[in-house]
Amino acid sequence: AFERDMYHNGKFPNDFLWGVSTSAYQIEGGWNADGKGPSVWDNFTHVPGNIANSDTGDVACDSYNQLDADLYMLRALGVTSYRFSLSWSRIFPYGTGTPNQKGVDYYNRLIDGLVASNIFPMVTLYHFDLPQALQDLGGWENDVVLDAFHTYAEYCFSTFGDRVKFWMTFNQPHTTVAYGYGLGVIPPGVKNDPGYAPYRVAHKILLVHARVYHTYDQNYRARQGGLISLSLNTEWVEPKDPKDPRDIAAADRYLQFTLGWFAHPIFKTGDYPDVMKWQVANKSDLQNLKSSRLPSFTEEEKAYIQGTADVFCINIYTSKIVRHKTPMLNPPTFVNDRDTGEEDNPSWPSTAVSAHKAVAWGLRRLLNWIKEEYGDVSIYITENGVATNSEPDFEDHSRYFYYKTYIDEALKAVRMDGVNLQGYTAWSLMDTFEWTSGYSVRFGLHHVDFKNPGRPRTPKRSAIYYAEVIRDGGFPLGPEDEFLYGEFQ
Ligand code: GBH
After folding, report:
1. DSSP code string of 81-133
2. Which residues form the active site (predicted)?
3. What percent of the chain has pLDDT over 70?
4. pLDDT tier at 390 (50, 70, 90 boundaries)?
């Protein structure tokens, strides 16, 4: 049993992984270099008006040509891990077929550079950038595409798995299904089927994730000795009126409909959360439909999905207020199924992204919720960070404050609550192409000058601060803390 550790001296455990994160489309550029095929994001950004200021990721941080600059920043920070994603269409230009050797070489150079620097590679196979050729076949809804993902994953295990020991199949499947197939604001932009499409696609993603997990487990793990999981995301939510049982239940439903949608099948029963099954079935019934819009798994599929992640990877940025709300019954949408209303608490510190309030204690609560809900699983924070606007700001006060307070809450979760947190990964190493916001918001520890063809990188104050936290392994007490704790040497 966990005992509250009074002697940690402000530090995380010695083997704690400290990292930063990026994703392929957001940093690499080289969108058609050396035989790379187009992804859905290449095509989406090439339609003027889809992205703020009509920005694209054609060049982004130019990481495809600036590997050494990226490795330099990583070593300067002193990180012990680097989470990045592979561009599927750089490796298989049309999603399947013959690999593109020059694209493979790029990732070999990156991985070798990390290993030579004692930095542990954490690799995401899919961070939103489906090869366009596979979208043309119907994307995640076509079994041919699911087969292609499995083949691509196996190729990555056999090519990079001698050096990569930490795999994530998907980044934030909730974002893909909610924003790609529900709200339709990111590729593939499906807007007309919000009551069905997100559930249908999530179902397929869960099954193919499980298939890739089993392949790794059976054919690669013994030889390569790595871990495999996926990164899930949610906001932390607080009930609007903490004394109103309906708001408390609504907050729990929100978590079950975002995180639980994927985590409950994988980490608990092989099936969706009960409250989600009940809500969607009940709404479907009231809508005079013959069956629930939420698809169901066979007993065999449940057994196949259950337990298909070795560790829990969570991305979290902010917190929200949630209350009970009964929306209109029709037309059916996945958002209305959960009977919640979300709002921001205006008294929480705001940031450049209006919906992202900096609420550090929300991280501690979410980590505790995961521990309660899914058992004493090993947890990695695979993304956490804050936006500032496009003006260069090397003083970087808000980001410094954000990391200091969030990492401190993570420390409390480890040392006071006994959460089995094994690593913390900041989003992001540097400013990147921020999806529909383009370059208008910045998440980086390093500033990137996107107007300069050389894309120079410059550390912000938060980079220097994060390097100190990593060097110290947390917030060790100094002599000035003696009045609080007495003599502790
Ligand atoms: C993360 O998602 C992403 O994994 C990462 O790539 C990104 O850079 C980071 O956020 C910072 O934003 O489609 O414009 O309506 C965090 C959760 C869920 C936040 C989807 C943005 C969609 C905004 N995200 N949401 S939009």
Report:
1. EEEEE--HHHHSTTSSSS--HHHHHHHHHHHHHHHHTT-EEEEEEESS--BHH
2. 383
3. 96
4. confident
What is this model's ipTM? 0.90
The pLDDT assigned to 452 comes to 98
DSSP string, 416-450: TT---EEEEEEE-SB----GGGTTSEE--SEEE-T
Q: Where are the alpha helices (DSSP H) in 333-422?
A: 360-374, 397-415
231-265 pLDDT per residue, tens: 999 999 999 999 999 999 999 999 999 999 999 99
Substitution site in 435, 436, 437, 439 for ligand 1 pocket (most atoms within 8 Å of beta carbon): 435
d(CA 204, CA 149): 12
> Ligand 1 pocket: which residues have CB below 6 Å?
23, 171-172, 175, 179, 185-186, 233, 315, 317, 383, 427, 434-436, 443
What is the best residue among 177, 402, 427 to mutate for testing ligand 1's pocket, by most ligand atoms within 8 Å of CB? 427
Distance CA 187, CA 179 (A): 8
Region 437-463 average pLDDT: 98
pLDDT confidence of 489, banded at 50, 70, 90?
very low
Q: Which atom of ligand 1 is nearest to the CA of 353?
A: 12
The dihedrals phi and psi of 111, each to the nearest 5 degrees, come to -65, -45
By most ligand atoms within 8 Å of CB, the mutation choice from 26, 124, 129, 179 for ligand 1 is 179
**Nearest CA, atom 14, ligand 1:** 436
372 annotated active-site:
no
Cα of 439 vs centre of ligand 1, distance in Å, is: 14
pTM above 0.80, yes or no: yes
Question: CB of 25 within 8 A of CB of 38?
Answer: no
Ligand 1 centroid–CA 373 distance in Å is: 24
Which position has the token pair 């999530």?
A: 202
Residue 267: partners with Cβ closer than 8 Å, 6 or more residues away: 307, 309, 312, 374, 375, 377
| Cβ–Cβ under 8 Å, residues 281 and 294 | yes
Pairwise CA distance, residues 11 & 14, whole Å: 8
Report the pLDDT value the prediction gives residue 7, as an integer from 0 to 100. Answer: 64
Would you state the structure tokens that stand for residue 66, as one six-digit string?
């600036």
DSSP string, 184-225: --STT---S-TTTHHHHHHHHHHHHHHHHHHHHHHHTHHHH-
pLDDT of residue 350: 87
